[in-house]
Amino acid sequence: VNGFGITGCSRAMLANRISYWLGVTGPSYTLDSACSSSLLALEHAYRCLQDDLCDAAIVGGSNLCLHPFVSLQFSRLGVLSRDGRCKAFDNDADGYARSEAIVVVFLQKAKNAKRIYARVVYGKSNCDGYKEQGITFPSSTMQGELLRECYEECGVSPKDLSYMECHGTGTKVGDPEEIIAIDKAICKNRTAPLLIGSVKTNMGHSEPVSGLCQVAKILIAMETGLIPANLHYNRPREGVKALEDGRVKVVTESTPWNGGYVGINSFGFGGANCHIVLKSHEKEKLNKGAPSDDLPRLVTVSGRTEESVNVFLNDIEKHAVDVEYIRLLHDIHSEDIQGHLYRGYTIVGSKTAERPTRETENYLGTVRPIWFVFSGMGSQWPGMGIELMKFPIFAKAIQKCDAVLRPRGIDIINILTNKDKSTFDNILHSFVGIAAIQVSCVLHNNTYILLSINFIL
After folding, report:
1. Which residues contact 415 (CB under 8 A, 6 or more apart)?
2. Active-site residue among 35, 86, 187, 274?
3. What positions does the domain Ketosynthase family 3 (KS3) occupy (predicted)?
4. Whole-angstrom Cα distance, residue 282 to residue 256?
5. Domain residue extents for the chain
6. Catalytic choice (44, 166, 167, 333)
7. Active-site entry in 44, 205, 232, 333
């Protein structure tokens, strides 16, 4: 009616719309190779980074089952399971269940990345080409060729592969062809069975976004140290020798992840094949992410609704303090985010408070001036600066005060950290102690401290 239907609903413009919104100008396009779309997009992003066409890449995929007509066509094609379960590699496999998903990953060059979940070692794609059985019939020959070329080109030995996340749709033809390709290309000279699985048994087949769902599963395994179990597998597919002889082993229970290389298969039903090799990030968090001090952490967040802010704060408070995660939150919320009308904060990691201090408020967009209101004499107590001195920025300010006062015979650091109750019997200690605390709370440059100290003396 208004003329914007084509621009709002055009699949060709989806990536361009995101580039438009974010104001980014690198390569921007939509890929459609059916079930291998999102993994193929990841491979393209990897190539763009390798060729210096961009410094970072946003790779996303989505699948929404909005119209029953599509499901009807897949059912007529014979690829949907009658009981709504994807039984990949099982002898009773009869197809898959369609599912919805939206997944986005962010790729950067390692030198620029602040947080690395996994490293993309290599990616490669090919196409089945002509097949006598028809365009939708998978080709173990071309899948195997893709695997052999991929590992030869990236210099990773197939025997070093720790796990293979298969395409594994649970179709009568697809699973055997994929296992045959894996057996011929990967299992030769291996001393232990190759662990395999398919995320489609856990969540169904999200079709074009399934490749990124596979990546998400692998990242979960790397982060938690456990490979999620493959569901609905009871009896190996008859006639598939690699399964029957144990050269490949389906992960049927949560299995420890010990690091290393992972291969990910994704195949389009028109013959567009893609394979990605990932490697777990071996750098361990210092002190497992725990702070090296006992200081509480202030975390500020924003959101579109009060509920979204509280959900964020609840999640922060229920986990142990992770300094890398706290820094990530600081980075995200360091600038104003359009449409975020609510603000909130929490103080976590306190050794004295029974529960975190928190508050959530509506933000009206007005920048209010900050005022520091301090009390006068009588607010001092022995050791009142001990905890504050643990904060580097505060300690640095006190050291500037000390540089001014020490030539006058006043040891301000001792005054603030000495627990001797007689310290403040000297009224001068009270004056300079209180003033130094106040000055250090607002200090931005030397001018303030010199003016304040001159006023006191």
Report:
1. 385, 423, 429, 432, 433, 436
2. 35
3. 1-280
4. 16
5. 31-280, 289-362, 385-447
6. 167
7. 205
Task: Note if 205 is an active site residue.
Answer: yes
Q: Read off the pLDDT of each residue in 182-202 and give the average, rounded to a whole number.
A: 96
Burial of 372 (0-12, 13-18, 19+ CB in 10 A): exposed
Has 281 been annotated as catalytic?
A: no
Residue 95's identity, in one-letter code, is: G
R_g of the chain, CA atoms, integer Å: 30
* Burial (0-12, 13-18, 19+ Cβ within 10 Å), 367: exposed
Tell me how far apart the alpha carbons of residues 266 and 274 are, in angstroms, rounded to a whole number: 5
Could you give the 3-state DSSP secondary structure of residue 219? helix
pLDDT tens digits along 227-256: 999 999 999 999 999 999 999 999 999 999
In this structure, what DSSP letter does residue 191 have? S
CATH class entry, domain 289-362: alpha beta
- Residue predicted with more confidence, 311 or 284: 311
Residue 404 near residue 450 (C-beta atoms within 8 A): yes
The vertex-178 CA angle with 175 and 182, nearest 5°, equals: 135
Strands 342-348 and 194-197, sheet pairing: unpaired
Cα 326 vs. chain centroid, distance in angstroms?
14
Classify domain 31-280 at the CATH class level: alpha beta
Q: Read out DSSP for 314-363?
A: HHHHHS---HHHHHHHHHHTSS--TT--EEEEEEE--SS-SS-EEEEEE-
In contact, 198 and 163? CB cutoff 8 Å = no
Q: Give the pLDDT band of residue 134 (cuts 50, 70, 90).
A: very high
Question: Could you give the CA distance from residue 392 to residue 292 in angstroms, rounded to a whole number?
Answer: 13
35 is catalytic: yes
pLDDT of residue 444: 52
At a CB cut-off of 8 Å and minimum separation 6, what does 439 contact?
A: 397, 401, 448, 449, 452, 453
